[in-house]
Amino acid sequence: MSEFNNVVVTATKWSTITEIIAKLVAPITTIILARLLTPEAFGVVATVTMIISFAEIFTDAGFNKYLIQHEFEDNEDKNKCTSVAFWTNLIISLLLLAIIAIFADPLAKIVGNPGLGNVIIIACVNIPLSAFSSIQNALFKRDFDFKTLFVVRMIGIFIPLLITIPLAILLKNYWALIAGTIALNLSNAIILTVKSKWKPNLFYDFNRLKQMFSFSVWTMIESVSIWLTGYVDIFVISIYLNQYYLGIYKTSIATVGQIMGLVTAATTPILFSTLSRLQNDEKAFKEMFFKFQKIVGLLVIPIGVGMFVYSDFVTFILLGNQWKEAAGFIGIWGLTSALTIMLSAYCSEVYRAKGKPKLSFLAQILHLIALIPTILICVKYSFQVLYYGRALVRLELILVNLLLMYIYVNISPKQMIKNIAPSLIAAFLMGILGYGLNLIGKSIWWSFMSIILCGICYISFLFLFPKERIILYNLIQKIKFKP
């Protein structure tokens, strides 16, 4: 068990380093692109991404999760299943690209971009490119080889700087964003295939496909429900409002995601891989889950509170003056994102690691029942009412997941909330301090100084709690990286 913990720690370090560098570069890219391109350009890309992400649900077919979660008999069994998954993904992706190409113009009208059928066709080249490398990506995660994924991600991180931004300067439209995404997926496909121990071969077995699909079908259905949860609002805005507000809306969510992703993108894949290996050891499974939740909570919760208190400052620094209307949404979305990650998103990883993706699907369906009416009602009032309604309805998803965790996984809501209570208390006190400091001044330098002061106070508040004090002390001792 100690050897396994060392593997997890090493994987976490590599994943964390990757995401820290990625999230340091990503805001720089966002800062530049937000000043070169209009919200309308981001709105166009948001609707195209909606189509691509939906298609990728079926190209993956849930096989990635299967390869990570499943306990194989031996390497031969794993390699054969990998081959079946690879060819299935690739064939489906090519078929979907052909269908999209045929119906591109009607699709463009449906998503509120009439006349942009060719844009959709070219952008959807990403579908087979992504499918080609997704299986190799899953194998690296299964083996906790995040060091290799670090190399791949580092190359991908700088593609926007080398391709997207120069094109944005020259073209000043959405083609820059589309070209950058294609270059990124092409790079991933080439590098992951070259670095992977497993190589594509001509093996295929329909019996194995049937066996894999029996698990993956629920993961795929769950992915559809997650897609609906993530994009039903995009679809509604494209119909009732316009590309400007769609750009504001989607970019606000993406901005919060970039900041939160500094922590979550580094930990979520490792959490799923780790819990999958511990699925048959109930005690170790719960201990690992609570350990991840507590440590991630120490970082995510103050980030969420900080974005809420300093939303105007965050918006100005990352996006610029033309995005002022995004500030309110970035603030409330950041706050609810922190709570959703800690008390809902990680629950989905637990369900999948336990081989129970049906639970995540059930949670998403129950959320959609609350989400769709909320959006349809709020969009008729104003953009502000819409984004507040969209953010606050996420609390329903939290309640649903807490209930499912209690009933089906035997983890009580009280345990989960108690586990992150010190972070919640310390962040709340920090938020009050930040609000007071905001009343004193709003200048850039004052905001920088007050944010630093809030961070120091947050850590000081945490030291009042014995367990958190031990964790912080251990983290300080382990800052020096050991490969």
Would you write up a description of this structure?
By secondary structure, this protein is an all-alpha fold. The protein has one domain (2-477). It has 21 helices and no strands. The protein has helices at residues 2-36, 39-60, 63-69, 75-102, 104-110, 117-123, 126-142, 146-157, 159-171, 175-195, 206-240, 243-277, 282-309, 311-318, 327-353, 357-378, 383-392, 394-408, 413-440, 444-462, 466-477. α2 (39-60) packs parallel to α12 (243-277), α12 (243-277) packs parallel to α15 (327-353) and α13 (282-309) packs antiparallel against α15 (327-353). It is globular.
Low-pLDDT regions: 479-483
**How would you sum up the major sheet?**
none
Query: Which word captures the global form?
Result: globular
CA-to-CA gap between the ends?
Answer: 19 Å
Q: What's this entry about, in short?
A:
The protein has 483 residues and is mainly α.
Write the layout of secondary structure elements.
Elements: H1 2-36, H2 39-60, H3 63-69, H4 75-102, H5 104-110, H6 117-123, H7 126-142, H8 146-157, H9 159-171, H10 175-195, H11 206-240, H12 243-277, H13 282-309, H14 311-318, H15 327-353, H16 357-378, H17 383-392, H18 394-408, H19 413-440, H20 444-462, H21 466-477
Helix pairs in contact: 1-8, 1-9, 1-12, 2-4, 2-7, 2-11, 2-12, 3-7, 4-7, 4-11, 5-6, 7-10, 8-10, 9-10, 11-16, 12-13, 12-15, 13-15, 13-19, 14-15, 15-16, 15-17, 15-18, 16-17, 16-18, 19-20
List keywords for this structure.
globular, 21 helices, mainly alpha, disordered C terminus, 483 residues, single chain
